[in-house]
Every structure is written in C-alpha cells, then in structure tokens.
Specification:
The structure holds two protein chains of two kinds. Chain A is an all-alpha fold. In chain A, 62% of the residues lie in helices and 0% in strands. Chain A starts with a helix and ends with a helix. In chain B, helix 4 (73-110) runs antiparallel to helix 5 (128-143). Chain B starts with 5 loop residues before the first helix and ends in an 11-residue tail after the last helix. The chains are: A mainly alpha, B mainly alpha. Chain B: One of its GO terms (molecular function) is acyltransferase activity.
Chain lengths: 80, 486
C-alpha cells in the first residue's frame, strides 16, 4: 500500500500542480484545496492511465478518502 | 407568506417563542412543531397543494427505507427509479408540460402538420424545484450508500418541508440537514445574534437594493423599444445587482432564521461578483444548486465522457449548464442562459484554469489584472442576465439590438425616477458592494464587524440599516422574491 500511496501522491502533485501535497490513507477531498469535482476526473484519468486499469462509475463515486481509492486500485491490479 | 411581510414576522415570533420556551430540550416536540410550522407556512401561500408535498414526502420516506433494506443491487436500483420518476416526472409535468406542448405545436406548424398537442391548466406547487431536489438527492444518496435511510417520519417530513428554505432554497442535502434534525439543539446566543445580523443584511439587500433596482429594471425591460439606449444600459447594469440582492438576500434570511432555530444550513452565495473567472463565479453563485448539479449531473457525465479528454469535459459542462438553465423554468431564455454560461467555460477548459482557485492577497489588495478579471466576469454574467430577464429569446436579442444605438449617448429617460433617486440608489449599491468586499472571506457581509468596529459604530450601522429598511418598506410595495417562481 505504501508504494501505491507514493505513486498516487506523485500523480496528485502532477495533476493538481502543487508540490506540497502529502497524502495519507485518511486524506479526503476536503483536505486538499485543489481537489474538487473537476480535478477529481482528471486525477482518475491520470491514475487509470498510470496503472493501466479501468474503474467503474460506481467505484469512482463511492470513495470517501484516499485509502478507499487505494483499495480499489489494489483490487484492480490483483485482477490483472 | 414572504419573509419581509407582517404575517411572517408574527408567525416567526410566535414560532420562535414556542420552539425555545415551550418545548426547550425536547427534540421530538421541536421537530413536530417544525413540521407543523412548515406546513402552516406552506399552506398560507398554497393550501391546495399541501397534500402534494405530504404525498411526495411519504413516498420518498417509504422508498428510502425499502432501498436500504433491499439486499439485491437491482432491487435498490428499481426502487430508486420510482423515486426519480416521481421527482423528475413531477417537475417535468408541473413545470414543463405546457412548454413542451407549445414547442411541439410550433414545430408541427412549421412542418405544415395539422396536429395539435393539448395544453393543460396546471398549477405548479410552490417551491417544487427546491423540495424535489431534496428528495432526489436523498434517494440517490441512500442508493449509493452515502447516507442512511431516515427511519423517523417527523424528521424526514421536516427535512423536505423545512420552512426557512422550503420555497427558495438553499437546497440542503439530507446528509447535512437530517443529522441536525436528529440531535438535540441548544439555543446559542452568539450564533443567534449572528443569525439576526445575517437576516438584517438580507433584508437590506432585498428591501433597499433589489426592490429599488426593480423600479427601474421592470419599467425599462417592458418599454425598452421606446427608450434611449442609455436607459437600457442602466437597466442592464442594475439587473445583476437586483437579482443578486434579491436571491442572496432571501438566502441570508433563510440561513439567519435557521441559525435562530439552532441549524446551520448550506451557504448559498460566496460574494460571486468578486470572481475572477466564470468557473469561480459558478462556484460562488447559488452554491447549493451548483453543488447539487455537480454531484448528480456533471460528475457522472464527466466520468462517462472521461476518455474524450477536453472534448468530454466540454460536453459535460454544456449539458450540465443547459440543465441548470432549464431548472429555472420552462422558457427558451433560461435554456439559452444556461447554455451560454456553459460556453463561457470553453476557454478555461482549454487553458486548464477551470479549477484553479484564486486566493485573496493577505493585505486585501487587488492587482490591476485581478480587477480587470473581476470586471470581465461581471460583464460576461451581465450579458446573460439580459436573456434571463427577458420574456423571450426574441425580446432579448431585440433588447441587445436597441442597446447598440447612438442614443446610448443621450440623457437616459427613466419613468417616474428622478436623477436624485438614481444617484441615491447607486450610492446604496456602492455601500452594499463595499461592505461585501470587506467581508469577502467571511460568511456574510456583517460577519467581520466585531473585529473591526467598536460597539457604538456597530450599533449605529445596525440602526442605519434598520432605518433604511423601514423607510423603503413603506415606500416600495412588497415585491415577491424572484426565485420563488422557480
């Protein structure tokens, strides 16, 4: 999970254009200024391309924090 | 029963006394009182349709529980479709049926077909667009596991009919309002006083700014063909202040009243006219509606279109804003208003600055570019508000045509309005915007006072506001709030 978190952190820094972002499993959209409904989609596209995975619409809308997002990524990677 | 009327003041005073002094510390009794008060408030304006809101609440209450109990995904889905059909179907039928009938008939006529789609005499229940959006968000949130189904009928029915925001918003989602209905509420002096301040400011906006602007805009938009372009320009520039003061004034009063009853409801405006681009404007204008659309329309669409990159984003934004326009009512003017606002996003999407949030400088200063951007955004919005205000799209374009005329440089003619009145109104608008600028990082325009003004200056300001509110209340006949018609 730690390795995943680091990779996702890099993607956040890149997409949101903010070097200071430090994610943890409990981080939610409320904790990151630039993370809103619009950047959310850009983050998802970047994550899907990076890990070569595809989320369902329901999965994307069900996450409440980074931890839940990481679990989804891990599940997808395990399936591949 | 509008907020700035004598019957409402009497109703609210009695309600407040019963709520805190007769039933203090008794949540259940307070909720029952809240429900009865909300139904009384609704029935005062529209008693014939009280049955409708009760039936809608009952159906969605039942569906919420059934969706939660269902163990199979497709049962949840089908139950939610019943709620959505009732919500969207009810809205479409009550607000849009005749619009579609007339549009079809015009189309048939243009095609030379002898078909006449019948039109019906329908009375749309007041506030339907607002309370329907509450029930729809509830059903979707229960289905998606974002909120638990409410098992207390009084709580749920009160959520749907919560009178401070029943007729004109803010549109609270169940997950923000229901937990507050489920817990004990205590009278908090500081919060209640701040609520009163917000009500005072809301009244100032409505009675002093909006109603006085309306005296000019109403006349000019009705007689625009006979007036010099300079009059049209004045009305066009006043209307954004009128609609903002009218609608945000209502929201301020609703939020203030809710605070007096121990509730924190959703913020609806965040000083939108200081926005530096259109995306920021829509993040700060009618926030409870835009956040609703963002969650339930824009996000699913943009997820669906995400492989198309920017093109997908354009499409999602355009559809989203067109539907935002339609939400306002059955008229092509609202559709065009929404669509144009969606189009305004295109340069931002291309530049990638759609979601860049601007922060104010610590010393409150403004660079020349920032000032220019604020004016530009205001200008863009002003142009679309002409369409919003017009009776038809043809009238809106005719208004623009009349505006571009050499009579723009003539002395403006405003029926029954003296130059002194106009100057007075402009001073009030300058004061209004100045106060809002001071408080741009706060919740409302009077929120900053405690730190910056001594107690006597504050009291003088409150007295001044109260005086002008009373003065103009007696001068201008009560005007309905613009957003109540939606």
């Amino acid at each position: 999970m730690k390795e995943l978190l680091a990779q996702v952190n890099e993607i956040f820094i890149d997409v949101l254009d903010n070097e200071d972002i430090v994610l943890s499993e409990t981080t939610s959209a409320n904790d990151v200024d630039e993370w809103d409904s619009l950047s959310h989609i850009q983050l998802i596209v970047a994550i899907e391309r990076h890990f070569k995975i595809r989320f369902t619409s329901k999965e994307i809308q069900s996450w409440n924090n980074i931890g839940e997002m990481l679990t989804s990524i891990q599940d997808k990677l395990n399936q591949n | 029963m509008i907020f700035n009327s004598i019957p409402f003041v009497l109703f609210f005073s009695l309600f407040f006394a019963l709520y805190w002094w007769v039933f203090p510390k008794n949540r259940k009794a307070q909720n029952i009182l809240l429900l009865l008060g909300s139904y009384f408030f609704y029935a005062w304006t529209d008693w014939k349709l009280l049955g409708f809101i009760i039936a809608v609440s009952a159906l969605n209450f039942y569906l919420g529980l059934k969706i939660q109990q269902a163990t199979v995904d497709h049962t949840k889905r089908w139950l939610s479709y019943i709620g959505l059909t009732q919500g969207i179907g009810g809205l479409l039928f009550c607000k849009y049926y005749n619009f579609f009938s007339n549009s079809f008939n015009e189309l048939f006529q243009a095609l030379g077909l002898q078909i006449l789609w019948p039109t019906l005499s329908i009375i749309a229940p007041l506030g339907i667009s607002f309370f329907t959006f509450r029930t729809i968000s509830y059903i979707l949130d229960v289905r998606n596991g974002k909120t638990k189904a409410v098992d207390d009928g009084v709580v749920f029915f009160s959520y749907v009919a919560f009178f401070p925001s029943l007729l004109s918003g803010p549109i609270d989602k169940a997950r923000t309002l229901v937990p507050q209905l489920e817990k004990n509420r205590h009278f908090e002096y500081a919060s209640a006083v701040d609520g009163l301040r917000q009500i005072l400011w809301g009244l100032f906006k409505k009675v002093v700014i909006a109603n006085n602007c309306a005296l000019i805009t109403q006349d000019v938009f009705t007689h625009y063909q006979e007036l010099p372009a300079s009059s049209l320009l004045i009305a066009m520039l006043l209307y954004p202040f009128q609609i903002y003061a009218d609608f945000s004034g209502y929201s301020d009063m609703a939020i203030g009243m809710a605070r007096l009853l121990g509730f924190e409801i959703t913020k609806n405006f965040d000083f939108p006219y200081f926005s530096q681009n259109i995306a920021e404007f829509w993040r700060k204008w009618h926030m409870s509606l835009t956040s609703w659309f963002t969650e339930y329309v824009f996000t699913p669409l943009s997820i669906y279109f995400r492989d198309w990159d920017n093109k997908g984003l354009f499409l999602a934004v355009l559809i989203n804003f067109t539907v935002v326009g339609i939400w306002h009512g059955a008229n092509w003017t609202y559709i065009l208003f929404g669509f144009l606002n969606g189009l305004y996003f295109v340069p931002l999407i291309i530049k990638g600055t759609m979601n860049k949030k601007k922060k104010w400088h610590k010393n409150g200063s403004l660079t020349g570019l920032e000032f220019f951007n604020i004016l530009k955004t205001f200008g863009l919005v002003t142009v679309t508000f002409v369409i919003f205000k017009s009776e038809s799209v043809t009238q809106a374009f005719d208004f623009y045509r009349c505006l571009i005329d050499k009579s723009l440089f003539k002395v403006p003619v405003l029926h029954g309005i003296s130059m002194l009145f106009l100057l007075g109104l402009l001073s009030y608008i300058a004061f209004f915007m100045g106060m809002e600028w001071q408080a741009k990082n706060k919740n409302h325009a009077l929120d900053f006072l405690e730190n910056k003004m001594n107690v006597w200056a504050r009291k003088t300001l409150y007295l001044f506001l109260a005086f002008v509110i009373f003065y103009f209340s007696s001068m201008v006949t009560n005007q309905d709030f613009i957003y109540i018609q939606f």
